[in-house]
Amino acid sequence: MPITPDVYKKIVTAKVYMDENFHETIDLDLLSRQACLSRYHFHRLFTRIYQKTPHQYLTQKRVEQARQWLANDELTVSEICNNVGFESIGSFSVLFKKEIGFAPRYYRDRAQLKKQQAQQQPRSFIPHCFIDHFRHDPPPAP
Amino acid sequence: MITKLSHVSLFVLDQQKAYDFYVTTLGFKVNTDATMENGFRWLTVTAPDQPDLEIALLSPLQESMYPDPETRAAFKTLLEKGALGAGVLHTPDCRASYEELKAKGVVFKSEPKEQFYGVEAVVTDGVGNWFSMTQPAAR
User: Fold this and answer.
1) Which residues contact A30 (CB under 8 A, 6 or more apart)?
2) SS (H, E, C) B33-69
């Protein structure tokens, strides 16, 4: 059965609510109220549209935000864990490793090392053909 | 034997605005952001489910890229006209993505429509390019 434009707007409203408030406690009751739908219909329609449950989407959103903060900010891992809405560092670490492939501290070390290298040796990150094509190297001496 | 495409370049009018669109609005991930001493910025992003294809967002309007003013002016004209269609973006649900992106101020050239290959809308990136945004038909 096709989803009407009005229902699309309701589901998108709840999805955007998660995007903007992922650090808060969010449950199915709250989301279905945001969407003005029953819990059952909201869960079914959200899962049909995004091909993941609201809970899976929220977890991925939190992990992705944590990934960005680990790479860019000075917050500690514990602070990031709290700021993205996880209640325990243990569950955060497990979910982060499952989604990203590395433990949070290891990911941070890798990301910060890459950032530092990109600042100090940018050429080592750019395929040489681009440097050559756009003539960023001085011409060879005759 | 060539096995896959790992990098593709996308010319944009402004790299920072491109960053805002692809990273902040669409949720693409930054892979590399490195600036050379002459100002040439190598900024690559990847789509959420396609981490092994780096899209290099390059600004041909920078002198560090094309020193020739005529070439820069030609790129500027083409990008401002939207003459360079860039590709096809996949989404699990075109109508949901359309509603969300429209609410975020993204400009569309066409609304979602049923096509034989799926549901398609045409979206602009605000920095000179347009994409088909397609929800592939179930096979």
Assistant:
1) none
2) EEECCCCCEEEEEEECCEEEEEEEEECCCCCCCCCCH
Q: Quick one: which of B34, B79, B17, B29 has its CA closest to B54?
A: B29
| CB proximity A15 to B under 8 Å | yes
How far, in Å, CA of A26 to CA of A39, rounded?
A: 13
CB B32 within 8 A of CB B40: no
- Which amino acid, one-letter code, is at B82? G
**Cα B97 from Cα B103, distance rounded (Å):** 10
> Which pTM does this prediction carry?
0.90
pLDDT over 70 percentage in chain A: 94
CB-based contact B110:B98 (threshold 8 Å): no
The complex's ipTM works out to 0.84
Q: Does residue A84 sit in helix, strand or coil?
A: coil
- Low-confidence residues in chain A, pLDDT < 70: 73, 135-142
Q: Using CA atoms, how far apart are residues B96 and B127, in angstroms rounded to an integer? A: 23
Nearest to A71, CA basis, from A32, A25, A118: A118
**In chain B, what residues touch A123 (CB-CB under 8 Å)?**
36
Closest CB to B100 among A5, A15, A119: A15
> Is the minimum CB–CB distance between B64 and chain A shorter than 8 Å?
yes
Average pLDDT over residues B1-23: 96
Residue B95 has a CB neighbour count (10 Å cut-off) of 23
Cβ–Cβ pairs < 8 A, chains A and B: 54
